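name: query_chain
kind: protein
chains: 1
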Amino acid sequence: MRKEVVEEIEAILTACVKGAMDRTSRKLETGKSHKPFHNALLTDDIVRISSFERSFSTSFGQGPIEKISELIARENGFETARQKETMVNLYKGAVDEVERICSALRNGGQKPHWAKEVQAISSFTKGDTVVRRVISDLWLKKDSIEHYISIKTVTPNLDQSEIAKKDMLLLKAENSEYKTLIGLYYNPQGKLRTDYNHSFPMKIFNMHKDECVLIGEDYWNYLGGKGTYEKLLTIFSEVGKETKESLLAF
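structure:
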C-alpha cells in the first residue's frame, strides 16, 4: 500500500476520533446529554466515556468506513464510486418475486439461500417492465466486472438487512453478471465467519455460507487483496498510539 494511501487512512481515523471527542464535549457542556439517572449511579468519567463510544461507533460505521473502503479498492486497481445510483429496468415478474422472497424471509416462511434466490428471479424473461432505483454504498469495476456492495453496521437490524437483500436481487435481475454483496467491516462475535450470530441479518442471509456475504477479513481482502485486513489493523494500531493518548487526557 502506497504511503499516500496510508496517510489518507490515518487522517480519516484521526479526524473521526477527534470529531467524536468534540461532539461529546459539546453535548456535556451544553447539557444536551442530560442523564439524571446515569449521573446518579455512575461517575462523570464513565458517563463521558459512554457518550464518546456511542458517538464514535455511530460516525465510524458510516462515512469513514466507506471512504477507507474506496481508498483500498482504488489502490487495488478498481474504478470506484460511493453512493452509486443505478436505475434498473426489470420484468415486473422478477420484481414481484424479489418482494415475495424478502417477505417470506422476513416472516420466517423461507430460509435464505442466495443461489436459489438468484435462480428464481432469473427465470423471468418476458412481460411488462418496471424501473427501480438502487443506491449502492460502494461500486467497483475491474476487467469489465461491476461490483455493488451494501456496507452495513456489523449488527444491522431487520429493515436494513431486508433493504440490502432487495437491492442486491434487483441488481442481479438487471444483469446476472453483476457481483452484488453485503459487507460487514468486522465480525463482532469472533474471527471465523461461522462465529457470526446476530439474529436479524441471519433471517435474510445465510451469513455463514452465502457467497454474497463478506465479513471482516473477507471483506477487506476482497477490496484490497490478500493481506489487506492485517495491514489495515497495523495502520489502526499506529494511529491508536496517538488517539489513545488524547483520550487519556479527555
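note: The first strand starts at residue 79 and ends at 91.
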